[in-house]
Amino acid sequence: MEEKTVCPYCGVGCNVIVISDRKRILNIVPSKREDINYGTLCIKGWKGFYYVQNDKRLKKPLKKVNDNFVEISWEEAIDLVVKNLKNIMDKYGPGALAFQASAKCTNEDNYLMQKLARQVFHTNNVDHCARSCHASTIEGLISTFGSGAMTTSIRDINNADLYFVIGSNTTEQHPIIGSRIINNVRNGKKLIVADPRKIQLTNFANIHLRHIPGTDLALLNSIAYVIIDKGLYDKKFIEERTDGFEEFKQIVEFYDPDRASRITGVEPELIEKAAVMYASSKSIIFYAMGITQHTQGTENVQAIANLAMLTGNVGKSGTGVAPLRGHNNVQGSSDMGALCDFLPGYRRVYDDQGRAIFENAWNCKISSKPGVSLTEMFEYALDGKIKGMYIMGENPVLSEPENDKIKMALSKLDFLVVQDIFMTETAEYADVILPAYSFAEKLGTFTNTERRIQLIRPFMDPPGNARNDWEIFQLIAGKMGYTWEYKNSEDIMNEISSLVPQYKGVNYKCLENGGVQWPVINCQSTEIMHKEKFTIGKGKFKPAYWEKPLEFYDEEYPFILTTGRIYYQFHTGTMTRKINILEREAPEAFVEINTDDAKSLGIRNNEVIKLISRHGSLDVKARVTDIVPRGIVFMPFHYYEASVNKITNSNLDPTAKIPELKVTAVRIERCSA
Amino acid sequence: MMFKISKKNFQNYVDFLIGKYEVWGPKKIGSDYVFSKLNNGQEFEDVRTVLSPKDLIYPPNEKLFEDNFKEIIVLGVKSCDYRAFKMLDDVLGIDSNYSMRRRVVHMFNFVCTEPCKFGFCTTFYGPRLEEYEMQFTDIGDYYLIETNDLRFVNDLFEKASDDDLKIALEKSKNVYKKMQKLNMDKLSEKIGWENPLWKEFSQRCISCGACNFACPTCFCFDVYDENDRYREWDSCILAGFSKLAGNANPRPTLDLRLRQRFLHKLKFHYENFNYYLCTGCGRCIEICPVNIDIRDVIRSVNP
Q1: CB-CB: which of B35, B63, B207 is closest to A43?
Q2: Between the CA atoms of B168, B170, B173 and B175, what dihedral angle is there, to the nearest 10 degrees?
Q3: Which residue range forms the structural domain that includes residue A603?
Q4: Number of folded domains in chain A?
Q5: Are residues B171 and B192 in the same domain?
Q6: Which of A296, A324, A352 is the last residue before a domain boundary?
Q7: Is B192 in the same domain as B278?
Q8: Contact A514 B288 (CB under 8 A)
Q9: Nearest CA to A102 among A78, A81, A129, A79?
């Protein structure tokens, strides 16, 4: 049999046709649709699906008995979960519970998990990994444009004349968008890359700005300075479409290229050249974690939005701001309100009108106080304020900063439920583990980085007694006395489309031919947003002064450690590390260190070295390379054997509560010394 | 032997085959064509698919030591893809799984009468084959059928005349007329170890492996254990492909791996077997995310 579905890795949302006999995958074929993956896939698309048929898939519910897991029936599992969560709620109040949704799961799953938290367990303590990746995008773009998502579409990339890529290793993390950029640049379009590392895209860049991690805001402000100074800004656009230009002008005035150069380490001439090039072309700005994972993540995103408004590069074809979403459905799970401060459709929990809609629909009271964010949930657990946790398809033990603290927090909980497809580093701490369907067994929807709601279709039989995530929530709600009557995932989508304005009127039928991009109007896509006016009305300039990251290089910790993902692995490796060829290509952790730095420290390639931060230390193999500049080391976070998040800091962006994973001060020692 | 079958009866013929065998063929899924199991004759369309049917004889990922070979018929195979199996036979012929499937999977090739966008098959064998199981050519209201295998002959077949064959030849000549033929003159001797293209390609190659996976003649695999033993398609573009113990690697950089891929196809295989390991199907060109083109390599030697 054959089914058309969507790749479960990054946010590009490549379409594939899977041929299977429902027990095993027989072949994987990329779809030729021009607007997304034009008949291509990256290595994760070609090789990365086979984890779904891995023997290690969880097949039965498990409970922990004397530090071992024993198989139990679904009845017992649901009883246990309900009894324990309810006890905690009755004894300590709903605030003692916390729920973690998943960007790997469908919109329907995420919608129901936040509904379970809010309606059944009366708490806004529901959040997911968008908190650690694009929470600052949501805040930054909502405050400027009114909508926290890519303003344009993947297809529209071909219509731009210049690409400004900052804080995104596009060919490794969004390879098919990266390829599209390369093809366009080879056809004469221009490319500016701002990244401390010499990433593959720099092979094609007209300008490479190698700024120091954590100085993005100074760099972006300085680009704005030059554009204003040279009179290259779009006066008409600013006048007609935006507010706050004067204040913006006053603040960026501080960032002349000379001053910015002293902060960022980029030559003033390069900043000027980049500013002129960006302002004089039809441009799209792409960004990812290099912008968002900072204590000034929200301000960084706003600075990008400011640049786009300043030059009128938003709201028309070939222009825009493109946050690249790292998970297949991190856009969707955010849209679904799996966030502690937003209800579905980005209504703030303290917005009385917005809350009333859901209170009426769900016949319950919702707290107007934002819940506890993902990063803070572990602090709360350590303090004993959160006693029970329910984690779906996430592995915070590896993905969140200061791992040891996360582990301590999880051990301190009275009760932890983990719902996943494999045993994970996090599931080890669970009292009950619930086996769930993978994307291969589900009918549902993912929303990709260009806001396209796409259908995924089941092509495998579920393993053992595993269950669909949303069905598990329905069972729990039922046991708690709430009768949900969803017969299938489409019933859930019908509820979503009646309550979430962006998804208005969406049903599975209108998604059949390739999906639609929200905001959806009569089942039709909005390809380019903010065309006539911004979602917010008039666009708002949101300027800010650059502040030194809370941790920066100093005498004691002279290096900046920055983290990220690599091409062959994905996130905490729950899926990719079970794939033979992907694991073969990238089997172990490493830290990139500049050749000259290595020489002065006497470090050889492949030598195990010690990285020490204020939060801990770890041993890892050195990869001596010129990809990183002097003073900066880079490490991927996929590996439990050497988990970089043991030593990263958990300083938060005060608005978006995103941790500053991109800047940690470290020092380096030789192990043998 | 030569027969013909009217297009109307062809559907009935497919239905007849489906009654006796498992039948696979090009099938439209959304806007894409893939090889899949056909449920009835109407589903069949003679269209070039994204991938060749290599997977039906040599699966992308298979459990080893498992006797699970069923007789199937594959319709709508393009001649380039069919020809590729003859090449794979020289390398994988001694492999038990491959050779077992080769015996029980019957591939019926359909001759192209129009050139495809990226193909350059006329450089090698062209759309008509000398060796085949059943060769079908669209001659208007009929398909001409050439075969020496009487197992699949059916009452619906009619006798074909020499005029029918003439039309078939004429139709396939159309491809020769419209398709650019590349100059392969002494290519295997002339193509050098050094070529600026390797570096140039390596700047943009994203190591997806698609050129290998889409190639009907690529045969490299890797073996791994996961309770049972499995093997899967491998890609010489990946660093791990040539990684040795202690992380030594004779092809440590991407340009060297790209060179290996092209030199294997255009030099080494020729030196061993006296033919190029390429059928000109053009799939690697079409499927490459960043437009790396084997024709550029050939032209860089023989402009």
Answers
A1: B207
A2: -70
A3: 559-670
A4: 4
A5: no
A6: A324
A7: yes
A8: no
A9: A129
**Residues A357, A347: Cα–Cα separation, whole Å:** 10
pLDDT band at B67 (very low <50, low <70, confident <90, very high): confident
Q: Which residue of B has its CA nearest to A41?
A: B208
Residue A642 sits in a domain of what CATH number? 2.40.40.20
Alpha-carbon distance values, A576 to A8, A46, A483 (Å): 11, 12, 38
User: Which CATH number covers residue A215?
Assistant: 3.40.228.10
Residue A552 in any domain: the answer is no
Report, as an integer, the average pLDDT of B13-20: 96
In Å, how far is A584's CA from the nearest CA of chain B?
A: 6
With 70 as the cut, is the pLDDT of residue B138 above it? yes
| Listed residues B152, B178, B204: the one ending a domain | B178
Query: Would you state the torsion angle of the CA atoms of residues A107, A113, A119, A125, taken in this order, to the nearest 10 degrees?
Result: -110
pLDDT surpasses 90 at A399: no
How would DSSP label each residue in A489-548?
A: HHHHHHHHHHH-GGGTT--HHHHTTT-EESSPBTTB---SSSSSSBTTBSEE--------
pTM over 0.80: yes
Kindly state whether residues A612 and A662 are assigned to the same domain.
yes
Shared domain check, B199 and B77: no
Give the C-alpha separation, A568 to A577, whole Å. 9
The reported pLDDT for the residue numbered B177 is 95
Percent composition of chain A: helix, strand, coil (DSSP 3-state, to 5): 35, 20, 45
Answer whether B29 sits within 8 Å of A4, measured CB to CB: yes
Asked whether residue B210 falls in the same domain as residue B169, the answer is no
Domain-ending residue, one of B178, B204, B237:
B178
Q: Are residues A68 and A47 in the same domain?
A: no
Average pLDDT value for residue range A416-422: 97
Q: What is the 3-state secondary structure (H, E, C) of A573-584?
A: CCCHHHCHHHHH
Same domain, A309 and A185: yes
What is the ipTM score, two decimals? 0.96
Q: Which residues of A touch B247 (CB under 8 A)?
A: 606
* Domain shared by B284 and B248, yes or no: yes
B53 and B122 co-located in one domain? yes
Overall domain count for chain B: 2
- Taking CB atoms and an 8 Å limit, are B35 and A24 in contact across chains? no
The residues, ordered by sequence, that sit 6+ positions from A393 with a Cβ below 8 Å of its Cβ are A102, A104, A105, A419, A420, A421, A436, A469
pLDDT of residue B70 exceeding 60: yes
Q: Do B10 and B127 reside in the same domain of the chain?
A: yes
Give the model's pLDDT for residue A673: 53
Interface of A with B in 426-455 (CB under 8 A): none
Domain that holds residue B83: 2-178
Render pLDDT for A490-512 as a digit per residue (tens, 0 to 9). Answer: 999 999 999 999 999 999 999 99
Contact: A46, B290; criterion CB under 8 Å: no
Nearest in space to A325 (alpha carbons), one of A129, A457, A574, A123: A129
Residue A258, pLDDT > 60, answer yes
pLDDT range class, residue B210, cuts 50, 70, 90: very high
Same domain, A384 and A471: yes
Q: Are residues A218 and A250 in the same domain?
A: yes
Question: What residues in B contact A40, CB-CB < 8 Å?
Answer: 208, 210, 287-289
What DSSP line would sit under A359-372, residue for residue?
Answer: HHHHTS---SS---
